[in-house]
Amino acid sequence: MKVIESDFQAWMGGIQARMEAALARLLPASHIASTRLHEAMRYASLEGGKRVRPLLAFGAGEVTQAMPERLEVAAVAVELIHAYSLVHDDLPCMDNDVLRRGKPTVHVEYNEATALLVGDALQSLAFQLLAEHRLADDPRLQLEMVRTLAVAAGSRGMAGGQQIDLESTGAALSLPELEFMHIHKTGALIRAAVRLGADCGQGNADERQRLDRYAKAIGLAFQVVDDVLDHDASTATLGKTAGKDSKQGKATYVAALGLAPARQLADELRAEALAALDGLGGRARRLAQIADFIVLRKF
Length: 299
Description:
It is built from 16 helices and two strands. By secondary structure, the chain is mainly alpha-helical. Strands 1-2 form a two-stranded antiparallel sheet. Helix 1 crosses helix 4, helix 7 runs antiparallel to helix 10 and helix 15 runs antiparallel to helix 16.
């Protein structure tokens, strides 16, 4: 099994620390009215998570030689959408979970109504940041970046995938049906993170096509590994309730394929992602390392 390289660990830690500082700066301060809402927004977004989507944005930005200051804002916008989705996913009307990132979920720590507003406000803030910071030299490209995130978060992306997931509870999905669901539920925002990172720089059409193929494969791999970990890992390791999906009758890759074939599929998707990076040279090194991290992770 391949070992995650130490220089990648250092790079990842640097990006994660940078994101924590950027989120702390760009989220409304908890003393600003409405203080309870802003406190809960910060609770939902800070001090936790792997920051995989920001890592992908920064990795893609290295391919297109994007300025770190632009990548930081784009990555925060994607992470806020991700944080909002987790808050809403954990609500009693969705997955009804009580633990996220090793601490009580937002509706448990505050209340259900506040959690609903937290998700709404985090989503709004993501688009506010994309609109008020200069992230691309061409204003038309920046407008397209706003559209990219909107589509990824909406009914043709993450929200639509979540609806399919809700409707599929207790059903046995075929592999193509499962892939369709997760291309939207999980993969859409991961693809958006890569695209936004690339759009902060000066990439050409071929580079963007390669990056999108990479993102599609690694987005699915991320979900496959999530399903494996939900089956295999402990609640303490995951920082969220382990075994929840199987108990709720969720359609997963482990349920559809079995544990060993699901692990094999994750390896195949990693190989597909790495193949998409061929021709990008050393600029894609971080993306290749992120692919290894996603598939080999234990949490």
